[in-house]
Amino acid sequence: MTNLIALTESNAKRWAAARLTRNFTTVARRLVAPGAKARYQTVSARTGVPWPAIAVIHERECSQDWTGSLAQGDPWNRVSVHVPAGRGPFRSWEEAAIDALVNCAPYAARNKDWSIGRTLAKLEQYNGLGYAARGRPSPYIWAGTDQYRSGKYVRDGVYDPNVVDSQPGCAGLLKTMMALDPTITFTGATITPAASVKPIPAEKPATPSIANPSKGSIGAFIANIFNVVFRRKA
């Protein structure tokens, strides 16, 4: 049986050391977009699970497909066939997400410690502790960082040490989301320079010229006179 205290400590250390090896920005921007954030916050208010954790689960389970259940990515308007099977149908994505966090293992809504180490351990539990049992970093958490190289369960119970998980891992997503949205915080979590996202530079105003005089300037006044004269001649 995996020692969750040890896993929490291990993940906290990995978080502090991790550097991104992929660009997570495009996906992270989707996850922190106002419309998506509001929906995650609705579920968070009902479950106590931080909305960024809900967001990264949604991305990992079904690439943020709003027709897919948070539990395993199956359509939430049908009875699920993948583990956890037999859930639903539900009336909305939010209802399915609440069920996944409250009624399905690892019962994330029961967790009270949302420090970064414990959050990552809970996310790893959500996917399964097979990697921890092998002493390997979980790609569900660490894919796209220097903490992970290869190894993936390609189907239930079948582990291939040579397969590389192409999906963005939760840790890299959270680091990038924190850089994009300063309201996201976890105890013990800091943003490393490698995870920082450069802000989009503001567009520079055009330099005033004869063809493009500054508004209210003498040049603009003269240009206006020319426009009136030539418009009349036309």
Structure description:
This protein is an all-alpha fold and 234 residues long. It folds into two domains: 4-195, no CATH class; 204-234. Helices cover 45% and strands 3% of the residues. It is built from ten helices and two strands; from the N terminus they run ααααααααββαα. Strands 1-2 form a two-stranded antiparallel ribbon. Helix 2 (25-32) packs across helix 9 (170-180) and helix 3 crosses helix 4. The longest helix is centred in the last third of the chain and has 16 residues, at 218-233. The termini are far apart.
Task: Supply database-style keywords.
single chain, 234 residues, mainly alpha, two-stranded antiparallel sheet, 2 strands, 45% helix, disordered C terminus
Structural class call reads mainly alpha
Distance between the termini: 87 Å
What is the typical, i.e. mean, pLDDT?
87
- Shape descriptor: globular
Domain count: 2
| Number of H/I helices | 10
Strand order of the largest sheet: 1-2
Radius of gyration: 24 Å
- Flag low-confidence runs: 192-206, 228-234
Which H/E pattern describes the elements?
A: HHHHHHHHEEHH
Strand element count: 2
Biggest sheet descriptor: 2 strands, antiparallel
Question: What proportion of the residues form beta strands (DSSP E)?
Answer: under 5%
Q: Report the helical percentage.
A: 40-55%
